[in-house]
Specification:
Layout: H1 6-31, H2 37-66, H3 72-94, H4 96-133
Helix pairs in contact: 1-2, 2-4, 3-4
């Protein structure tokens, strides 16, 4: 198992914001084949939306996990991500109906998790801000 400094995952996710989302659009639009351009556009929008939701969920949860002082949650998240990707690919190839059911469940999980992740990120940045502001000299008026 590779041990990475916690910030590496966050930096990697920041870079991949500009890779994963456009790739989701292009893959979805290309997957429908040579059809009506409006259908390809709709598929691209859906693919981009799904890529955005999954990317924000992954990168936001990783940011919160990396803020944790213990390394075990980071390792567990990394292994769980790898198992989910490999399992998802195998299920998609061998049982597409089951994959669609899991995909719908995953979308529901994203809708439920994203507001919680956003609140956690706001709290994290508020704590960082208060840490730096408590040492700032006070101005006299």
């Amino acid at each position: 198992m590779q041990i990475k400094p916690p910030g590496v995952d966050t930096g990697w996710d920041a870079i991949h914001t500009f890779i994963r989302i456009p790739a989701g659009v292009m893959i979805a639009a290309g997957a429908v084949g040579d059809v009506n351009p409006s259908l390809a556009l709709a598929a691209g929008i859906l693919g981009g939306g799904l890529a955005t939701g999954s990317h924000l969920t992954k990168s936001g949860s990783r940011l919160l996990i990396n803020a944790s002082p213990e390394p075990f949650s980071n390792w567990a998240a990394s292994v769980l991500e790898d198992v989910a990707v490999i399992g998802g690919i195998l299920i998609a190839l061998h049982n597409p109906i089951l994959f669609l059911i899991f995909l719908i469940g995953f979308i529901c999980l994203i809708v439920w998790l994203l507001p919680k992740i956003w609140r956690g990120i706001k709290m994290l940045f508020a704590k960082i801000k208060s840490f730096f502001n408590k040492d700032a000299p006070r101005q006299l008026s």
